[in-house]
Amino acid sequence: QVQLKESGGGLVQAGGSLTLSCAASGFTFSSYAMSWYRQAPGKERELVAIISSAGDTTTYADSVKGRFTINRNNAKNTLYLQMNSLKPEDTAIYYCHRPPNYRGQGTQVTVSS
Fold it and tell me: In a 3-state reduction of DSSP, which class is residue 90?
C-alpha cells in the first residue's frame, strides 16, 4: 500500500534552515508528481510546493518562493523540502502528498522568533 513518511522537522530559530524528507513506498515513485503541504493551528491547509515526476518542473507558494526548494531523488524514492530563511509564520505541520489524496503523518516545524 502507499506509504509516505516525513522526517526532519524540529525547532529552529528564525533565519535558520531545515531539510524535510519524505520516504515513499508502495508505488512507483517516479511516476507521480509530488507536493508538500503545511497546516498551522487554526489555519487552512496550504500548498507549499509541487514537483513534477521527473523533477524538472517546480511550483511554489508565493509565501515561500525564494526561500524553499523542493526536489526529489527517484532512485531513492525520496522527496525533499529544503527550507532556508525560516520565519515564525512557517510554523506548521508539513505533509508530503501524492495524488489523489495520499499523505504521510506529517512532521512538525516550529520557528521561534
Answer: helix
Q: Could you identify the residue written with the cell 489524496?
A: 101
Mean pLDDT score, 94-111? 96
What one-letter code names the amino acid at 83? M
Do strands 78-83 and 68-73 pair parallel, antiparallel, or not at all (unpaired)? antiparallel
DSSP 20-69: EEEEEESS-GGGS-EEEEEE-TTS--EEEEEE-TTS--EEE-TTTTTTEE
Query: Mean pLDDT, the chain, as a whole number?
Result: 97
For the stretch 53-92, pLDDT in tens is: 999 999 999 999 999 999 999 999 999 999 999 999 999 9
Going by C-alpha positions, the residue among 54, 58, 53, 61 that lies closest to residue 94 is: 61
C-alpha span between 92 and 6 (Å, rounded) = 13
